[in-house]
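2024-03-11 09:14:02 INFO worker-7 job=invfold-0412 stage=load source=structure_tokens
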């Protein structure tokens, strides 16, 4: 393993603040410790090249905070988030309120950053973790185009807030988390970008409010345990309750939300309410052309960087292919290092459930001279190997534990290339390459019968059976069938939460997008590998464009993902455009897991020994599944049953027991 060393104090309430400075005066930064004991997480096999990592971290404390001055609490919260040598904290202290920030410089304009941004004669102070994608538009509206090249994104954001007030945040495009003190009204204002790329959490106790980028920093300071309700929702494949985190008593600012906190008041409001009126295009070709142009702008905005090269994930699918090819066209000087996860040597064939996407990915790379293709033959890293490092880095139960094996390996290789920006397409299935599979049912439900008949005929002509067409037409009127792999592994007596009925393609896609919070994952990758992860498929403009498209536009002529196939036909290989197969990334995870079944058994027994964890997960079924580990995995349902039931239970149980330790 090549995970970096993490500070033992990350979850140690006795940790001391490091290297804090006030009002932007910068003495040398302080180092951080290494020793994480094996009973916590074995990270001793570390890569010394990453000892100088830093993560942009925000902190704040306000109002009546007992014997501790807010600035001391602020220092401590910064110290409980990953820090680095020679990177001081900037603190702003006004007695009853304090703000703090450490900055991981990932943008050229970060060279002009001055720490805590201030405005209106000192009445406003802001700590921001921010990348603005509409800098030019904001500068033009503010009349500061001539000085834009010397303005950090935080300074530009403060200028906008000075001019237009808090409402200016609604016009920010990009990834951000903002902590703003408004001294004129004695209020703390917290805000996140529309899709939640940067995390932000807070805790209220008595009259005191504390704020941090990561929930685990607040949990460490407070000694908080895991939130059982949030963990049950995770096991059930549902979003955590609104505003909740995975730690009891730690609240989360939702994506697209502004939280205003006064000494005796709290108001939560969603500022992102996208226009969902259907867009009109003369033809499917016009819609595809508009999507490709807008996507190019989304990728271009995410290529603002300090190093020459960038990295991407590259499978044989449409999303990662579109991201990689568009980046290669837009990067100018520099290279796009495209990384493809491949099976370990000697693992091929249906019996192993392995699908090698490397050959198709190589075809795309050959089309674009700026792409440097890296086929990564994954080591035999087991999902159980990811639990300890994941607890330290992510501060939540790990989603899709099987995929974490190859993601970690690729992150290691990206850092070995000296690249610090990674472009991904995590939201592509909900945006640029949405299948349009709900189109027929949506047309029937909305009473557009003539159009439904035509679309049904298109589906039939595209090769779908009459039974499949009938099923698509009646889908909105039927209850969702139970998952083929079975119910989640909840402990006896724990009820599975009831999901609210969601009608309509737009509502369903928004619900899926909110199932996981991307901010936690982006911050973890930055903490663990010094990689700034950016997703152009989650660009607010792309999301709004795709939500406004009538759903049948995504499947023109009855062809699933037909919009994306047309939009990116000129930059992707013909084999990718024509393929309808579903990628099976990490389809080999069970082989490495089988080699470490003793480790999995040991983890299950640790979960069983934890009162908190065993009250949530079904330990008996976990033991049974391991005892009857399959010898062959050619049946997809077998693989799904273990991936979708056992692995989430391991992730949830490990997280809860570690929080209680």
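2024-03-11 09:14:09 INFO worker-7 stage=emit residues=661
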């Amino acid at each position: 393993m090549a995970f970096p060393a993490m500070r033992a104090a990350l979850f140690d309430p006795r940790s001391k603040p490091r290297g804090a400075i006030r009002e932007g005066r910068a003495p040398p930064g302080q180092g951080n410790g290494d020793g994480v004991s094996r009973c916590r997480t074995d990270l001793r096999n570390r890569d010394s090249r990453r000892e100088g990592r830093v993560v942009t971290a925000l902190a704040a404390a306000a109002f009546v905070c007992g014997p501790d001055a807010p600035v001391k609490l602020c220092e401590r919260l910064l110290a409980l988030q990953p820090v680095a040598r020679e990177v001081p904290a900037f603190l702003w202290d006004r007695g009853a309120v304090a703000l703090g920030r450490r900055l991981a410089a990932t943008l050229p304009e970060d060279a002009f950053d001055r720490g805590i941004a201030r405005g209106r004669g000192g009445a406003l102070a802001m700590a921001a973790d921010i990348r603005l994608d509409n800098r030019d538009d904001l500068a033009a509206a503010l009349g500061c185009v001539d000085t834009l090249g010397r303005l950090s994104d935080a300074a530009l954001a403060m200028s906008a807030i000075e001019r237009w007030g808090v409402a200016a945040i609604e016009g920010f495009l990009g990834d951000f988390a903002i902590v703003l003190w408004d001294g004129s009204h004695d209020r703390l204002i917290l805000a996140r970008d529309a899709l939640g790329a940067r995390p932000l959490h807070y805790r209220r106790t008595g009259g005191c409010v504390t704020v941090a980028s990561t929930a685990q920093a607040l949990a460490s300071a407070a000694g908080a345990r895991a939130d059982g309700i949030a963990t049950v929702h995770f096991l059930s494949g549902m979003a955590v309750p609104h505003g909740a985190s995975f730690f009891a008593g730690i609240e989360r600012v939702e994506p697209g939300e502004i939280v205003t906190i006064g000494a005796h008041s709290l108001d939560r409001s969603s500022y992102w309410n996208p226009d969902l009126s259907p867009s009109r295009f003369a033809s499917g070709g016009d819609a595809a052309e508009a999507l490709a142009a807008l996507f190019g702008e989304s990728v271009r905005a995410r290529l603002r960087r300090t190093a020459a090269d960038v990295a991407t994930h590259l499978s044989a699918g449409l999303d990662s292919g579109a991201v990689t090819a568009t980046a290669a066209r837009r990067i100018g000087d520099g290279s796009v290092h495209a990384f493809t996860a491949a099976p370990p040597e000697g693992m091929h064939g249906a019996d192993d459930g392995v699908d090698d996407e490397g050959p198709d990915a190589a075809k795309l790379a050959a089309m674009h001279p700026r792409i440097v293709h890296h086929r990564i033959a994954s080591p035999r890293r087991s999902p159980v190997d990811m639990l300890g490092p994941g607890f330290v880095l992510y501060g939540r139960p790990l989603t899709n534990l099987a995929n974490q094996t190859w993601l970690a390996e690729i992150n290691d290789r990206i850092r070995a290339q000296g690249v610090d920006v990674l472009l991904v397409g995590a939201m592509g299935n909900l945006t640029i390459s949405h299948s349009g599979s709900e189109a027929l049912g949506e047309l029937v439900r909305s009473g557009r019968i003539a159009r439904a008949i035509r679309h049904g005929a298109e589906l039939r002509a595209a090769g779908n059976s009459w039974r499949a067409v009938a099923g698509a037409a009646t889908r909105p009127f039927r209850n969702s069938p139970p998952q083929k792999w079975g119910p989640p592994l909840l402990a006896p007596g724990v009820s599975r939460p009831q999901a609210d009925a969601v009608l309509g393609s737009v509502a369903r896609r928004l619900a899926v997008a909110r199932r996981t919070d991307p901010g936690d994952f982006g911050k973890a990758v930055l903490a663990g590998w010094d990689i700034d992860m950016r997703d152009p498929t989650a660009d607010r403009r792309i999301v709004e464009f795709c939500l406004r498209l009538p759903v049948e536009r995504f499947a023109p002529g009855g062809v699933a993902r037909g919009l994306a196939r047309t939009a990116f036909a000129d930059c992707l290989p013909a084999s990718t455009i024509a393929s309808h197969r579903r990628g099976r990334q990490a389809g080999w995870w069970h082989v490495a897991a089988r080699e470490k079944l003793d480790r999995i058994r040991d983890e299950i027994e640790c979960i069983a020994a934890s009162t908190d964890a065993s009250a949530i997960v079904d330990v008996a079924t976990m033991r049974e599944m391991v005892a009857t580990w399959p010898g062959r995995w050619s049946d997809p349902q077998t693989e799904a049953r273990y991936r979708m039931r056992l692995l989430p239970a391991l992730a949830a149980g490990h997280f809860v027991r570690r929080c209680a330790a």
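2024-03-11 09:14:09 INFO worker-7 stage=report msg="The mean pLDDT is 87."
2024-03-11 09:14:10 INFO worker-7 job finished
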